[in-house]
Amino acid sequence: MPAHPSQMEPAEAMRADARHNRARILDAAREAFATRGLDVPMAAIARRAGVGVATLYRRFPSRESLITEVFGDELAACASVVDEALADPDPWRGFCAAIEKVCAMQVADRGFTDAFLMAFPEAVDYERTRARAERGFAEVVRRAKATGRLRADFEPADLTLLLKANCAVATGPGEIAAAGSRRLVAYLLQAFRAEHAAPLPPAPPLTLGHLHAPAAR
User: Fold this and answer.
1) Within 10 Å of residue 99's Cβ, how many Cβ atoms?
2) Contact (Cβ atoms closer than 8 angstroms) between residue 37 and residue 111
3) Which phi and psi angles does 213 have, rounded to 5°?
4) 44: enclosing H helix or E strand
5) What is the pTM (predicted TM-score) of this model?
């Protein structure tokens, strides 16, 4: 028979309270990052969560640790999308599906783009997952080019430019943002087809490293 609340061990009560505070902080941070960006003050997140700043820092000693915890699941889902594209026997279809799914994820969670583009050298697991996603996407691009259907001058880092453009479209409300994103992605996928390729303006090629920024603290 479960123990009556009055009989609960103090340590158990403290653990339950700590878990509850942690969940509230993560929910508040997710909402704040989505509406105000990743540079929202930690004190504002604590107020939104209904906890003290000291409690927030006990759970998450740095902004970096909070950001990587909030967006860890999204990054893992992004890596899974790339894995699915690699498993598709049709490289062009896999490439298109990866673009469509990642952009849809971005609309659903608008803070993810900034989190993806930041560098978190101390968050080893987060960085390892991102590196795997980047390597996988580069291979998706290579395979799609090998079929002759993806334009030869497309670079893996062009995904970052696409995400930045899609982020602007995704600022609209609900289904309007989703519909706008789908339309933008459809236009861009047409532009990425080799048969529609026209010379791009001369510019040094970007790398993902050029677009990563150090996390704010």
Assistant:
1) 22
2) yes
3) -120, 150
4) helix 42-49
5) 0.76
Q: Which residue carries 């673009």 as its tokens? A: 99
User: Amino acid identity of 3?
Assistant: A
C-beta neighbour count of 212 within 10 angstroms: 15
pLDDT digit string, tens, across residues 138-175: 999 999 999 999 999 899 988 888 888 888 887 777 78
Which domains are delineated in the chain? Answer: 1-61 (1.10.10.60), 63-214 (1.10.357)
φ/ψ (deg, to 5) at 156: -55, -35
Ramachandran bin of 8, using left for φ above 0, alpha for ψ from -120 to 50, beta for the remaining angles = beta
* CA nearest to 33, candidates 58, 69, 78: 69
Question: Is 132:92 a contact under the CB 8 Å cutoff?
Answer: no
Task: Return the structure tokens found at 183.
Answer: 């339309």
